[in-house]
Predict the 3D structure of the following.
Amino acid sequence: MENQRNILLTGGAGFFGDILKRELVQSGCKVLSIDLQKDAFTHENFTAMQGDICDLKLLEQIAAAQSFDAIIHVAAILAHAVKDKNFLWKSNVEGTRNVAEVARRFHISKVIFTSSNCLWGESFDRPVTEEDSPRPVEIYGRSKWEGEKILQEYTDSFHSIIFRCPTIIDAGRLGLLAILFEFIDEGRKVWVVGGGKNRYQFIFAQDLARACLKALDYNKSAVFNIGSDNVPTFAEAYTGVIRKAGTKARVANLPRSIAIPAMKLAYALKLSPLGPYQYKMIAENFVFDTSKIKRELNWKPTVGNEEMLYRAYRYYHENLNDIKNRTAVSAHKQAAKMGVIRLLKWLS
């Protein structure tokens, strides 16, 4: 087709990358994805390459072989998925530096980057804006903040569009959420902290993919918050999912004075997958102000927190046997290990 966009995608075999690449080829783009994992997806306008974005020479070879209109950089290593935090830092920070260098050297005019609300680890009593200064509390958030700063060094060479994303959810999203889904599926108590009165925003994967597509037509550098509207409390969202699931699960409360110190200790002893970001935010409020992206990209969310969680739960419920046998897939495509949380499950 005429004027077909040629996109270099990092992380196309991951949970969000898989959704995004399908949206891209469906919209008429030609996509080459590089990922550490194998990618079985096939389409006439899609090419998968197994490789590492930390390999600058490989990225240069890819960029030299064809002319890319944009790089969409969604590859990232999660803190709960690896024990080697140096590997995480190298992948997320040096990998982003390599992406930026390749864009500069090969005159790729645009880099679209998925950052995170993990830039903060504190409660806000108001929506968080793009002007709020990041204060990450753990390595993943720090790596995303470093990635943002790297891209902003290159504004004279290309446009960088940065999306600060809360937890990305759709059917197929597992990771730490699989622990919640197991409790619901087995009719256990679903625990909230401090009554579950806090509000924590998510983003529907398809809505984020649409934002990436819109960013291909946005011709300047910018940072955008993105997320759902009308964010319910945790207790409200969980209650809604349990009702739709039809299990005997029910929401139960853990006092904050007990839950937070226990989570800190369990993580320090390497007994729990819930790190500093999770145990700080599990009882806090965090909602992005999304007025800027709505105004400048003419974007709006289509799915709220409860419906996102339910779609992800249904996928878990319907594919449980397959999920248990998965190997060599990205962290969000497999269930996180419970660790000491399994004791809580036995008490539920």
Q: What stands out?
A: DSSP finds 13 helices and eleven strands in the chain. The chain has a mean pLDDT of 94.
